[in-house]
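Hi W.,

Here's what went into the run:
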Amino acid sequence: MAAAVGLTVRIETPENVRLSYQLAGPALRSAAYGIDYLVRGLLMFLLIMGSCVLATILPGLTMGGILLALFFIEWLYYIVQEGFWSGTTIGKWIVGVRVVHTSGAPLTFWGAVLRNLLRVADMLPIAMIFEDVAWIGILPLYGPGLIAMVMTSRFQRLGDIAAHTMVVQVHPVVLPVEPMILDHIAPIPRGESNGFAPSQSQLSTIRQFLGRRSRLTYQRGHQLSAELANVVAERMEFTGDRENVRRFPMAFLARVCATFHRPGDEAEPAGQGRVR
Amino acid sequence: MNRARFLARRRPVWKSFETMLAGVEGGVARRLSASEAFLFSRHLRELAHDLELIRTRDWGLDLEEYLNRLLSRGHDYYHASRTGTWRVVGEFLLVDFPRVFRQWWIYQLVAAVLFFGPLAIGWALIQNEPSLASRVMPQEALDQYDMMYADVEESDDPDDAGGSMFDTWNEYGNERASMAGFYVQHNVGIALQSFGRGILLGIGTIYTLLFNGIAIGATAGYVLSLGHGDRFLSFVISHGSFELTALVIAGAAGMVIGDAFLHPGEHSRWSALQRRGKDAGQLAVGAAFMLMVAALIEAFWSPAPIPAEYKFIVGGCLWLVVALYLGWAGRRAA
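Here's what came out:
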């Protein structure tokens, strides 16, 4: 069912648990990088501001401290955060992505070290390779990283490949509520549905669509559900008012759901051979 | 079991797992008691079972997504690696790093040749023919060396242009502290960069090794040709032990990963890279530690106003220490 090209990665853990993750693409990752960049700049700025007082007394020591801090911000910002904070940094946390190993295991310390030390190779400006083509210089960063991301199936930059890591999206965990109250919707009479019963997956598709209908505009919802309603009506050789289906596809879908949802739940779905 | 009954029965378990997870992920109490850990692992297995059930019966993608997210979070917590302690750091420095160093000795050898070879050639050529120096190094740098060694009273840092920034110093320690920061930021940065760029077939690494070898050799040759041999050598011998060795190690680490593409052996190129990745990263981190030691020596000991003979003795001992450390540390634990 899942397309070959997509953001979903399926993993089987050693305990035979199948987990799926949503990969984070270059756009999300650039956003996280941008935020981290700002945070690093801000840290540096605050440090320099804060050390102004000290600089009047001990200029050399302050200078050394600032250079040392520069080193830490440059090289250890990512390693420390990702290594000790399960693959997130401030930017990644805000954007909602994090680093995991491709096996699904949480990021290890050495994984964080490797993927972030190799960042310098990923960051090489494209401009360094094509120096004579001036406008490519506009693309400032992550030339090799972007190329590697496009070429791998899991959006891995070079550091990710070497360290067996990938960046996945983090979603809040919310227990889904039942999408609607079906008690007041009139079920489709048996005669009009010709004994057709949709499969569980068809029903759950309908349920999900109805559950999300509040997020769509009316026109878009109508447009999308028209297709679905039409297919369902065709399948069941619906003998009721087809015009109504065309005009109120969402209502028709809700009726389908009301008709088959609860009875379908009561019965044992496995071993039920009457599809169509 | 139908969907409604299943949901009614399992939902409390999921909820309690969720709160348990939120508690341990909060970071305040990361440890579970024995009975809690037992419950946690049981819930984890039950959740995996629930997820499979929902998948096979097609009980809704949103439910599947919910359990998948919950389970992956639990899985993450359950399998999180132990956070490092000081003991781990000590073990790495005293056992793991020297061992990894010896394991990839052939790369260390190649890196050493690529670094010390041009260094020796540059040194020998330029000491005999100082006019060649201007072909390798910018004239300003040479002028700076002339100036630095012109007045014999002051012992400044001969191999580093940044030293002249602080010409109005009167407090020795204060000045030195700033140089320590500079050496860490500059030298460790160069080493880590040369490692990181190694992944591009090792070209960046080899360039860094050759470039630094030539530059250091030329500097040494030029300064010695001016007749300041004692002062220069007594300055560089101490920290050179850690610094030059670490540069070579970082270069070797870069070549270890770069060579994974060229000679992957019986693996695919990518998997060869992945198999070598951790070792190479450990080499680079070890080299970074060594460079920090070198930075401290270079900032506080090397320029100290102490007779050259003592510096030669201490410096020689430091070379011996580095050799013993890389050659023998961690052997007994094997």
